[in-house]
Each structure stands twice: as structure tokens, then as C-alpha cells.
Design brief:
It is a single chain. The protein has 368 residues and is α/β, with parallel strands linked by helices. It folds into 2 domains: 14-138 and 348-363, 2-Layer Sandwich (ornithine cyclodeaminase, domain 1), CATH 3.30.1780.10; 144-345, Rossmann fold. It contains 11 helices and 15 strands. The chain has helices at residues 3-7, 18-24, 27-45, 136-161, 179-190, 208-224, 237-241, 284-287, 297-303, 315-321, 346-367; strands at residues 14-16, 57-59, 64-68, 71-83, 93-103, 115-122, 129-134, 169-175, 197-204, 230-233, 246-249, 267-271, 290-294, 310-314, 337-341. The strands form 2 sheets. The chain has an 8-stranded parallel beta sheet with strand order 10-9-8-11-12-15-13-14. Strands 1, 2, 3, 4, 5, 6 and 7 form a 7-stranded mixed beta sheet that branches. One of its GO terms (cellular component) is cytoplasm. It is an enzyme of class 1 (oxidoreductase). Homodimer. Binds the thyroid hormone triiodothyronine (T3); T3 binding inhibits enzymatic activity. It comes from Anopheles christyi.
């Protein structure tokens, strides 16, 4: 537990604004705490006798929506117990937090973001509010990082294990070049050393100008990261998906965009967008042939109730079973299509919020 959490001497909660979040939040550190969030949910879902005592546990109720005049308030509370912030660390944290998000579509007409969010981090022993973290950038990274974690454990790790030097390279397709499409593309670029070298990125957006803007951003990212990948803006979704190893769909489409004929036999898809329902972007002929993985069963029962496909299990359960001979593997069949159906969950915000708060405290201690 944080030394500040133990003494609880701060007179008022700290406020960590967006620019500070951008400076404090590292992609690879976020990747580890998102893994902890996944594992905590799956470990908690096990029968008590089958839980792993060395792994975190969690509690998160269903998210709630409050309708307001002109907008909506989304509430996502959660608790993650005995989680780590860095791999190999002996220090454990128990974190209680709640993310509040407002969505007001008309804000754009007055020059304000249509979506705004904050994560409230509480002392898990006393319940005292310790920090308020602006959460727009946080949400972007945590959602993209959830896809990175799923891609790694479901697709890239098995691929690396089959290569002599333990490395792989990928062609990446981004269907939808808005904020989440951008964050996913940057995330794959920033984590190449740990996951896979990106050799090609293909982009599609309903309005081509947005894809061109993302191409410019990724060209600058290549310079910053000393990367050697090519970026193409595609006229069609089919062209965007062609020959891709990993695909991200991040649109608001309520109609199918990606069909089986667009895909290689062996491909991983991160389905992130949410139109009328969470599984609108992929055609039924994709779902007929793929294996679907989710972040949490409770959310899937509600938000994927009409999905007609094989849901294999939670990504956290895949991680829990890795390197445990007594546990049957849940990995996808080699040479097939795997889909991570990303719903988002409070535990992700809980662990990322704690990471940012602890890094903020360390930065303050260093400056004192």
C-alpha cells in the first residue's frame, strides 16, 4: 500500500489534469496493470477453492447510466485487491475507484469535448478520496492497451513461440481513424520492442481526411520511435484488411464493415467500436468462423446477448492458465480467426488510475 495511503495525511484530494496524465502514463506500464485488471476479474470469477492466492481479485457492479437533459452520465465503480503496478514487484495495492463519464453531443457546437471523464481514487482502508484524475487520455490508453494485452496473449505470444528468434512482425489494419483508432495505432507502434515489429499500417475511415490525418501522425511516430513501417490510406475496408495479421475496428457503425472474405485465414481482430450494439462491425460470416474472447462475462451477458458466435472465455482466464500444466489452455486454434470483443470495465480504470496516482506521488516527492 502507498505510504501516503497508510498515513492519509493529505488534507485534500490531489487533482491530476490531462497534461500530467499524458506525461505520467507509459504504454508498457499501462499494459502490465491492464493485465492485472483482466486477471483480477477472472480470478474472482473462479470458485474460491480454485482461486490463485498470488493473483489479484476484484469487485465491479454493472455500470449505470443516468439520463440528463441533453446528455448522459455513466458511472463505473470498482475495486481491485492485491494487485501489482510493476512486474516482479513485491509491493501490492488494493484500490477502490470510480470513473464518471459524461456524454453531451451538443458540446462540439460550443467548442467543448462531447465526452468528459474523471477517475476518483479512494483510500481502500478509510474510504477517503485521495485523487481525481482527468480520464479522457486515460480512457484512450486503457482501451487501446486492453487490445494490446489481448492481442499479445491470444495471438502474438503463440506466434513468437513458433519462431527461432522469438520475434514476429505484423501488418496492422485500423478500421476507423477517430480517437480510439489513433490510440490503438500509436499503442502498437510504442510497444513494438515488447510485442511485435510493425512493418505496415493500413488505414480506413468513412471520411478519408481523418485517415490522412492519422497517416501524418504515424509518420511522425515513426521518426520518434526510429521505426521503419509503411502507412497506407485505403479506399475500402476490404483493402484496409487485406493481408493484415492484426485488425482494429473502432467505429460507431451499426452495419457490418468487415466480412470473412476480407481476411487472411489466420488473423486477430480487436473489435472496439460500439454502434447500436457492440458486435455490429463484424459480419455474421466472421462470427461463424471465429473464436471470441471477452474482458468480463457479466458484461458480455448483457451487452453481447444477441451475439451468435463461440465465446471461448475471458482474456484474464487465458493469462491465468499460461504456464500452468494443470490447467487446460484456452488459446485459439492455430491458423484461425480470434476476436477480442472489447467492452471495457471498471477494473481497468481502477488499476490505471492507481498507477497514475502513485507515479504522481513519486514525482512530487522527487520535486520536494
Amino acid at each position: 500500500m502507498s505510504k501516503h495511503a497508510a498515513t492519509n495525511t493529505r488534507p485534500r484530494p490531489v487533482f491530476i489534469e490531462e497534461e500530467q496524465v499524458k506525461q505520467l502514463l507509459d504504454w508498457n506500464e499501462a499494459r502490465y496493470v491492464i493485465e492485472q485488471a483482466f486477471v483480477s476479474v477472472s480470478n474472482q470469477a473462479r470458485d474460491q477453492a480454485a482461486r490463485f492466492s498470488d493473483q489479484p481479485v476484484s469487485s465491479q457492479p454493472a455500470r449505470t447510466f443516468v439520463q440528463a437533459e441533453g446528455g448522459v452520465l455513466l458511472c463505473m465503480p470498482g475495486f481491485v485487491g492485491q494487485h501489482r503496478l510493476t512486474s516482479g514487484s513485491s509491493e501490492r495495492f488494493s484500490t477502490l475507484a470510480c470513473k464518471l463519464i459524461t456524454g453531451f453531443r451538443k458540446n462540439a457546437s460550443i467548442g467543448l469535448p462531447s465526452i468528459n471523464g474523471e477517475v476518483f481514487v479512494f483510500n481502500s482502508t478509510t474510504g477517503k478520496l485521495e485523487a481525481i484524475v482527468e480520464a479522457n487520455h486515460l480512457t484512450g490508453i486503457r482501451t487501446a492497451t486492453a487490445s494490446l494485452v489481448a492481442t499479445d496473449h491470444l495471438f502474438l505470444r503463440p506466434a513468437r513461440a513458433r519462431t527461432p528468434d522469438g520475434t514476429v512482425s505484423i501488418q496492422l489494419g485500423i478500421v476507423g481513424c477517430g480517437f480510439q483508432g489513433m490510440m490503438h495505432a500509436i499503442g502498437f507502434v510504442r510497444t513494438q520492442a515488447a510485442l511485435a515489429r510493425v512493418r505496415v499500417i493500413r488505414l480506413w475511415n468513412r471520411t478519408p481526411g481523418r485517415a490522412t490525418q492519422l497517416k501524418d501522425i504515424l509518420t511522425e511516430e515513426a521518426k520518434k520511435t526510429d521505426s521503419n513501417y509503411s502507412v497506407f490510406v485505403c479506399d475500402t475496408v476490404e483493402d484496409c484488411c487485406r493481408d493484415c495479421d492484426v485488425i482494429v475496428t473502432a467505429t460507431g457503425s451499426s452495419e457490418p464493415l468487415v466480412y470473412r472474405s476480407f481476411l487472411k485465414p489466420n488473423v486477430h481482430i480487436n473489435a472496439v467500436g460500439a454502434g447500436e450494439y457492440h458486435h455490429a462491425e463484424l459480419a455474421q460470416d466472421v462470427y461463424d468462423k471465429c473464436q471470441v474472447y471477452i474482458d468480463h462475462q457479466e458484461g458480455a451477458r448483457k451487452e453481447l446477448a444477441t451475439l451468435r458466435s463461440t465465446i471461448v472465455g475471458e482474456v484474464g482466464e487465458v493469462i491465468l492458465r499460461e504456464n500452468r500444466a494443470e490447467e487446460d489452455s484456452l488459446l485459439p486454434k492455430q491458423g484461425g480467426i480470434s476476436v477480442f470483443q472489447s467492452l471495457g470495465m471498471a477494473t481497468e480504470d481502477v488499476t490505471v488510475g492507481r498507477l497514475i496516482y502513485e507515479k504522481y506521488l513519486k514525482a512530487q516527492d522527487c520535486s520536494d
